[in-house]
Amino acid sequence: MKTSSGGAGGGRPSSSSAPTYSWAPTTSVSASGKRIHREMVELNNDPPPHCSAGPKGDNLYHWIATIIGPPGTAYQGGIFFLDIIFPSDYPFNPPQVVFKTRIYHCNVGTDGHVSLGMLKDGWSPALTITKVLTAIRSLLTNPDPYNAVVPGIAHLYLENKAKHDLVAGEWTARFAK
Amino acid sequence: MVSDSVPAALIPSAANTKNLGKKKRTNRSAKLKQNKIEARREQWLSQGSVKSKGCKDVIDSDGHELPLSSGNHGKRPLEQLETRHRVEEDDGLIHQHSDSESPANSPTGNDSGTNFTGSSGSSSGSSSSRSSSSYSSAGCCSGNITEEDDDEEEEGGGEEEGDDGCLDDWEAVADALAANDKRQNPCSDSPPSHGDESVVQMASSNCEDPNRGPNSGSRNLKPESANLVPWTGNCRAWRADDAFRPQSLPNLSKQHSLPISDRRCGGGVLWSRSAMPSSCPICCEDLDLTDTSFLPCLCGFRLCLFCHKRILEEDARCPGCRKPYECEAVVETEPSVLGGSLTLRLAR
User: Which parts of this chain are annotated as the region Disordered (chain B) (predicted)?
Assistant: First the structure.
């Protein structure tokens, strides 16, 4: 009894104290939630090849995705897990995509962050997670050494692709299988 | 000519203006009905002489219920009059005017008379011209027809004899047949029951009392067919639509019972037809009319006004083609129109 009334009382003052602040995010969250939910449904109905994604738990804004290494590349046979974190104003700002599986790639930072134009300035509200995953997978096939976040790997890729692929394959075998 | 004259004649006689409009609508089909009814009468007359039993029974039933008992007595002569009038029908417009007023004399005559003339249209002028007494007789005849099994067969014969036989007449006959079946087998009912009621009313349009009989019977059926609400509300409304009856009745009832779902379906269909996205691709909210007519970018990428405004506030690029929206003018005009607060927001 006391706790419930206290909880209700606690909730109301907070909202009343900063009505615009507390309400604006919630509305945007609900809107983004709807959009994310629709993306989830569409992704389940028509998943992109060799990719999968879905909410990690109850949190609709925190997804986990998997990308299977494209055949014919150094990442072949690897299963790469990614965390996808949607911002509360999701369609208007890009999701944050992080490789949870270590990968030897010039466009993936040591912390797993993906450097992809689509996820930065190139983001468009019309893009979806499906397209993002497809783009990341194509990035595995064709690294972009000129926009690399790991210069050493980019150098190696440009100068000695065979060695680069060898190392990448080793990493894939070690971390992604 | 005919259609014009009929309503004109009806206006003075019929107290209800509502009925007039309905009559106008249903005039054509009503004519057909009337033809059918007349054909029935002929049949009935011929059979009536043969079958004295059935006639008496019907008369009795009608006689009990009818306040206008006088009409019942004069049945035979009236029928003869009808036949005469039928001959006169070509001239009959004038007769209608003069005679149609007579129904107004009787209390129930208004309703029955209006219904009858309304349903029967121009050709009904002859029937209406038969005078108030002829009403009851006509009512009895029709009542007999609907109630008797044999009348179905008679009707078919009557149609052929009457030379009325267009396709529409045949439809009417079919309806009447169905109606008769219905009435005879009240248990077997529900889908045809619509047609049944309407036909019954049409046929027995002259007498309210016969209507009551069938109505009471048919009301039992109605709840099943979901016509109950419109029916109890206004019988005449349905009567006017009776001209179209079997098709229109169920449709109307559906509309009444399921308005929301129908609307939704219709709206969805419209959207899909126009190949418009039903919802904003950005926020997934349904696009309203304003949104659907809103084309912010030449690339054709559509989005709702809210998302558009939001994007304008940020990078102002079209999500579809990534080109900057050419809405700078709009952005500039907004502060001047709306005042300082907006300019501040934009400045941020």
Answer: 15-166, 181-227
pLDDT means per 10 residues, chain A with 177 residues, are 39 40 46 87 89 90 93 93 92 92 94 92 91 93 93 94 94 93
Give residue B157's Cα distance to chain centre: 28
The radius of gyration of chain B's CA atoms, rounded to the nearest angstrom, is: 30
If you search the block for the tokens 């509305």, which residue do you land on? A27
| Minimum distance, in Å, between the CA of residue B310 and any CA atom of chain A | 8
Cross-chain CB nearest to A126 (options B281, B285, B314):
B281
Q: How far is B311 from chain A (nearest CA, A)?
A: 7
Convert A141-155 into a string of H (helix), E (strand) and C (coil): HCCCHHHCCCHHHHH
3-state secondary structure B228-286: HHHHHHCHHHHHHHHHHHHHHHHHHHHHHHCHHHHHHHHHHHHHHHCCCCCECCCCCCE
Residue B276 domain-assigned (yes or no):
no
Domain end, chosen from B257, B291, B325, is at B257
- Tell whether B22 and B136 lie within a shared domain: yes
A22-175 in CATH: which number?
A: 3.10.110.10
Q: Do B86 and B124 belong to one domain?
A: yes
The 3-state DSSP class for residue A47 equals coil
A92 touches chain B (CB under 8 A): yes
pLDDT tens-digit map of B207-246: 444 444 444 444 444 444 444 444 444 444 555 445 555 4
Residue of B nearest to A34 (CA): B284
Binding-site residues on chain B for chain A (CB distance < 8 A): 281-285, 301, 303, 307, 310-311, 314, 317, 319-320, 322
B268 assigned to some structural domain: no
**Per-residue DSSP letters for B285-300?**
PBP-HHHHT---STT-
CA B55 vs. chain centroid, Å, equals 31
> pLDDT tens digits for A3-26?
343 333 333 444 344 343 434 444
Residue B203 lies in domain:
2-257
